[in-house]
Amino acid sequence: MSAVSVAIDVNPPHAHPILTREDVWRGLLMKAENALPFVLSMQSCTVLERTPTGLLREVVVRDDRFVERVTFTPQVQVLFERVEADGTVVGWISNVISDSDHGLLLTFSFNVAARGDTLRQSYVRAVNSTLAAVRKIALEGSPL
Predict the structure, then answer these.
(1) Which residues contact 8 (CB under 8 A, 6 or more apart)?
(2) pTM (2 decimals)?
(3) CATH number of residue 99's parent domain
(4) Whole-number pLDDT of residue 143
């Protein structure tokens, strides 16, 4: 397992449009439903089941297939737990919206099995591509 955490300012200088917590939250919900526009390395994302607090989905990332139990903590966190067929959690990814002294932060934390040394780089790209997609949604006023 490899643990990585990456925090990015949601609204760095010169960002346009300025994103609110609600904008980011809506984007994270959309990403949970269909991550393809948000995570460039993802090949497929299929919702298998919906629950009152989240969903169960199957994703394929770089030819690796995972089942993820997704739990929503409204306006704060989306937690993706990678699960085996028996329900055993074998890794997790957390997307957290928080406040800092200089504005909103989006923090992705990961504890997943990974190949190679590029885990941090690939998750930094995932955070940046997620924010870019959310910014596009906010700017255009419509879904991806």
Answers:
(1) 105, 106, 107, 124, 127, 128, 131
(2) 0.88
(3) 3.30.530.20
(4) 56
